[in-house]
Amino acid sequence: MGWRMQIRHRTGVAYAGPVTSSYNEARMLPSPEPRQSVLHASVTVTPFARTHQYQDYWGTTVTSFDVHTPHSALEVLAESVVETSGPAPVRAGAPGWSDLAHPSTIDRWNEFLLETPRTALDEELTDLAATVKGSHRVPIEAARAVCDRLRDQISYVPGTTGVLTDAVQVWRQKKGVCQDISHLAIALMRAMGIPARYVSGYLHPKTNAPIGEETAGQSHAWIEWWSGEWRAFDPTNGVPVAERHVVVGRGRDYGDVPPLKGVFAGAAGTGQQVEVILTRLR
Amino acid sequence: MADLFEDYPVGEPGTVWDEMFGAPGLPRADYEALHATLRPLAGSDLKVRADVLARAFLDQGITFAFGGVERPFPLDIVPRVIAAQQWRQVESGVIQRVRALEAFLEDVYGSGQVLDDGVVPRRIVVTSAHFHREAAGIAPANGVRIHVAGVDLVRDEQGAFRVLEDNVRIPSGVSYVMENRRAMAHVLPEVFAATRIRPVEDYPAMLLNALQASSGVDDPTVVVLTPGVHNSAYFEHALLAREMGVELVEGRDLVCTGNEVFMATTAGPQRVDVIYRRVDDDFLDPVHFRADSMLGCAGLLNAARVGRLTIANAVGNGVADDKLLYTYVPDLIRYYLNEAPILPNVDTYRLDDPEVRAYVLEHLDRLVVKPVDGSGGAGILIGSQASAEQLAAAAKRIQMDPRGWIAQREVRLSTVPTLVGDRLRPRHVDLRPFAVNDGTQVRVLAGGLTRVALPDGALVVNSSQGGGSKDTWVVSHYPVSPAPAQPSAPAVEHVPVPQPDPGPGVAAFSGQQEQQQQLREGRC
Amino acid sequence: MLSRIAESLYWIGRYVERAEDTARILDVHLHRMLQDPWTDEDLACRSLLAVMGAESTADLVGVTSVVERLGLDVTDSGSVLGALAAARENARSCRETVSAEMWECLNTTWLGLADARARIELRGVHPFFQWVRERCSVLAGLADATMSRDEGWLFLVLGRSVERVDMTARLLSTHTRAGGSIPSWLTLLRSCGAWENYLRTYRGSLSDRHAAEFLMLDRLFPRSVLAALATAESCLDDLEPGPGRVGVRTEAQRILGRARTDLAYRSADELLVGLPSTLASLQRSCSAVNEAISNRYFRQTAAVAWTAEAVA
Question: Is the pTM of this model over 0.95?
C-alpha cells in the first residue's frame, strides 16, 4: 500500500557579493512513472525567474532557469505531491550469469555496465567482486550479497565525503553517505557483469509516519540493478525500495542527476543550504 | 626549352591512378584541354605565374597557421579536373551519405531505434566522446542537423572514388575553394576560356539560404560565431560572414536570457535566430559543457531546445563522424534509405574486435592506423613509412585503448601533376566536397577542396601537416562553342572626351621666376 | 554595429590621437628645456609628468626618465608607444571593419617602433617624435579617405575628438602650473601645430589673451578645444536618431553640450582669469563623457568568466 506525500525541497546558495548572472538546472521533482504518480510539481525561484521544464536523456524532469538581476543569494524551492507504491513484486525465474553475459544484454545495458570515474574499481575491489560472483549461483543473490556486505562494512558517517568522492575512496575509509554507498554497490555489481544504475530521490525517514506530521528528511540515493527486470534496493538502509521512497531520476552515477547544477558570475560562492521536508498525507 | 612534363613518371596500371595520364604522354579525355594548354609553356613561365599566385594570397592575408606561424596556403597552379559524369557519381554519393547520417543523428538523439535494431552496436555510440546526451530531445525546426558537411574522398588504385571520412561537425576549407578559383581565373585565363567550369562563387548564397531555412522565424537574423582572430581558420569565418552579409560575432557579443539570444549592438540588444558556429561543442555553452570557456555563450543549448535558436551545425554531430562509426555507414545507408551505397568506404578494420586486432597488430607495417577522434591528420601512422620504434609505440597504444583506433588498408591515393621546381611531378591528392542541407534538398558545391601532399611520396594531405591545395574543376558536360557572332552594333558617334583640368601647373610659376632672375642679373 | 567593434574604433581614435598629442607635447617641451639654460630640469620634468597624469617618486627626474615614461613605456597606454600598441591591438580584433590600408598603416607603425630606443639614442628625440606625428597623420588621412561615414567612422572621430579635448587641456595646464619654469604661449602654440595659424589669425601679436582665445575658443582651428567639443557633439548627434521635443537623448550629449556652451560664451579675459579651474573642469568632463559613452554604447563587450556550482 503506497503513501501520498508532500515534499518541500529548498536549496539555497549564498555568495560573497552581488552575482550578476546565473544559469541553473534543477532536478528536484518526482518522476511520473508506473509505480509513482505525481499529483503536483512546481519549482519557484527567488529572485524571480521564469522556469522551463524538459526531460533529459535519462528521463529525469529538469527545470532550467536563469537570473539576471543582481543577487547575493539564490533560493530554489521545489514543491510536489506524489503517490508512491509498496515494494515491487519479485518475478520468479531470475536470469543466470550466462544470460547476463549474452551480447544483446551487454549491448542493451551498455551504459550501466561501463565504469565511470565515481564507480571505477581498484584491484582489491575487483577481487572482491570476483569472489562474490563466484560464490553465488544467480546474479540476484550476488547483488543482495553485495548490499548486505556494504551494510555491514560501511558506516554511515556524514561529512567525510564530497560530490566527487569515488568508490575506491569510500571502500578505503569504510565511511560515507547514501551517495557513496550506492556508488560502491554499483561499482561492484558492474564488475560482476550486472547492469546497475544510480537513483536519486527522497526518503521519508519514519517507517510508520503519522499522517500530517512535517518531518525533516534529505535527498537520498539508492540503486537499481537489472536481472531480467530492474530491481530497486536501498543499500544504505538495507531495505527494499517501497512507499517511503520517491524517485526523482536515474543515471550512471551522481553526475547524471545532481539536484542543482549551474554557473554564475560576479562573485564567489560562500555556502549552500539544503532543507527537505516530507509530510505524509495519506 | 624543356618540356614541363618531361620524365613525368606514370606508374603501372593498378599501382597508382594518375588523374591526368592513363599512359605516359597520353592524357585522359577530361584532362586533354588542360594538357594542351600547359604543354607549350616553359617551366619557368609557369613558375612565374605560380609566384604571382603566391604573392596575391599573401597580400590578401589568406594564410593558414602552420606550426604557429602564418604562411600562405600553398595553392598549386595546376588544377585538378573532374569530368561531369564522374562528378555525378560523387555528388549523388555524398548526398546519400549526408541523408543517412541525418537520419542517424535524429535517431540516436531521439528514439534510438537503430541501436535497438542492432544495426550499430550501442557501445560505439555511447562511448563516443562526442555523443552529447545534453542534445537528446532537441528537435531542429526543419529537422536538419548537418547544415554543412565535408565528405573526404580518395581515388584508389583503380581510379574509383572511396569515402575516407565524414566531417559533420565543423568542416572547414570552403574559403580556400572560393579564393583558389578567384586567383586561378586571374593567373590562367586562357585555360578558363577553353573549358567550361562549374562555378563555386554561389556557395555563400547557398549557405545563407540553408541557414535561413533552418529557423522557424520569418526573416531570421543569422550570425557567424567565431572563436576570434587568433583562431587558425579566422580568415574563413570572416570571409563567409562578409559574403553572406551577416554579422561576425564572438561569444562575448552574445547573451541569452529567458532562452532567447541577443547580440550587443550600439542600438541595444538585437535578437539572434540562427548561429552558424565555428566553435566546438565543448566550448559552446558553459552551462552544459566547459564552464571555463570564454568562446561561447551561456544558455545557447536550452535556447535551441525550446526552438528559439538554431545552432548550425547541431550540437552532438560528432557521434556521426566518429571514425569507428564510419565503418557502419554503408549499413546505415541500407537501413535508413533502402539503397545500395553509391560510394564505398576504404577497407577498414575495427580494432575493438580481438580477432581483428590480432590480425592488424601482425600486419601493422602494411596498414594505416588512425585515432578515432583525431583531426587535422595528427596521430596517423602510415605503416609502410614508419620506423620500428614508431610501429612498436603504435602497437602499444592500440592495446591500451582499442576503441580509440581503427586501421585501414593503405590506399595509394591518386596523383595529379603538381609544379615542383620548374617541372610537373605527380603528387597524391584527396578531395573534400562540401554539401549544404537546407531541409528540402542537399546541394553539393561543384568541385570542392583538393588537398595535395607536397613532399614526394607523402600521403598525408592536411594543411596542418604541410599540405597544399589545387583548384578543382568540374567540367561541364557541354563543350564550349565559339561565341556566336554578335550582330554589328550600331555605329556610335565619336564624342571627344575632355581632359581633366590642367590647373596653373609649375610652368606658370617658373617662367616668371626665371624672368625675374634674368632681370635681376641684368642689373649691375 | 556590434558594441565591441564600436568600442574598438572609439579607442583606436583615442589612442592614435593620444600618441600624436603626447609626441607633440614632449617634442616641444623637451626642446625648450634643453635650449633654456635657466630651466630647473627636475622641476620642469616633474611638472610635465604631473600634467600627463604620471607622477614620479624618484629623487631626481630628468629628460631621460620623462622620455622613458611618456614616450617608450609600451605597457602604459599613456605613453606614445603604449598608445600605438593599444591602437594596433584594437585594430587587430576589428580588422573586418578598418580598411586593409588602415590596418597596414598601424601594423607598419608598430613594426617601426621596435627599434625606437635605438633610434632615439642615435639621433635624438626630435626625429622620432616627428616620425610618430607623421604616422598618426597618415592614419588619420587613410581613415578620412577609406572609411565610409557610417557608425564606425563616427565612433572613431568621437574618440579622437574626446581625446583631443583632454590632451589640449593637459597641454594648456602646463602653462598654469604654479612655480618653476612656465612654458610660454609660444611653446604651447607650437605644440599644437598652431603657431603659423595663430600668426595668420592675429597678425603676429603674441599675447596671453589671444593665445588662450585661439587655443580654446577658435571655431575654425581644428585643434582648438571648442572645435573638438563641437566635433564630438556632432558625432553623437549623428549617432542618435533625433533630439525629440526636449533636450538631448544621451548623458554624453548633455555633458558635451554644456562644456561647449560654457566655453563658447566666455570672453577671453574671463577665460584667462579662471584658466586652471576651466581646464580641470574640462578634463573632468572628458572622463564623464567617456563613462557616459561606454554606458550607452559599449554595454557588453567583455567575456564573462563563469564559476560552476553543484548542490547535492
Answer: no
